[in-house]
Amino acid sequence: MTTDASDSSPQDTFISHLVELRTRLLKAVMVVLGVFVVLFLYPGPSAIYDLLAQPMLASLPQGTRMIATGVITPFMVPIKVTLLAAFVLSLPVVLYQAWSFIAPGLYRHEQRLALPLILSSTLLFILGMAFCYFVVFHTVFTFIAHFAPQSITPAPDIEAYVNFVMTMFIAFGVTFEVPIVVIMLVKAGIVTVKRLREIRGYVVVGAFVIAAIVTPPDVLSQFLLAGPLCLLYEIGVLVASTLERKKAATESHDVTAPDTPED
Questions:
Q1: 94 within 8 A of 32, measured Cβ to Cβ
Q2: Would you put residue 61 in left (φ > 0), alpha (ψ -120 to 50) or beta?
């Protein structure tokens, strides 16, 4: 009986992990859908899409509007935008559910990182999207509008525009997570600060390669992505170096501290 129980234990553990994963996913999806319903009722998909389209509309000639070439595009595109907004607003809950799933397998000092990690990741992702919306879109769209020949009247398709915007949002949101990734790699012992500084040149080259793949084929938008990526990498290295020095100082203090005599 003991052998049977030990043989079934790994399978039971695997099934329990699957059940836990399903529960966490369902909670995250339900929160996203709940926020989506609220946004759908107020302010509504049209208002959210108009806000997203503002950077493009501001760069178009006076009286020019975007077009919809698909039959159901005027309905589906605002719905897609509203769903994206719901996911962004629900990001803290989604990250918390992901952390709650992996937390039982971590040490206690690692579990204490949950709240700072969730808050910083959410804040940096939103900052990346805000930088893209207020700086990158305005700069790139204005540059394209002035570069276009006078004989052309631009009329972007709304579906192509939303796909472009979502790609850029994800790219800049993930880019702004670089400091978190760098710090976690150092704290996990996967890489040292010294090694991160040694590969700085490769990171710069990689940043421009990624920017060339993700952004439109113009030098301006590539610099607007590669520049912050390199800067955020340096910020991550700086913070990781500070944490590493504090850890070394604490360990040195614990080693040199005299033992207290026993009563």
A1: yes
A2: beta
Give the total residue count for the chain: 263
Residue by residue, pLDDT tens for the chain (263 residues) are 444 444 556 666 778 878 888 999 999 999 999 999 999 999 999 999 999 999 998 888 887 888 888 889 999 999 999 999 999 999 889 988 888 887 777 667 666 777 788 888 889 999 999 999 999 998 888 888 787 777 777 788 999 999 999 989 999 999 999 999 998 888 878 888 888 999 989 999 999 999 888 887 778 888 989 999 999 999 999 988 888 787 777 766 655 655 554 44
Write down the residue that tokens 């999806």 correspond to.
Answer: 29
Structure-token pair, residue 73: 């595009």
3-state helix, strand, coil in the chain (%, to 5): 80, 0, 20
H or E stretch at 242: helix 219-256
Residue 150 corresponds to which tokens in the numbers above? 């006078």
Q: Please, which residues bridge with residue 157 across strands?
A: 67
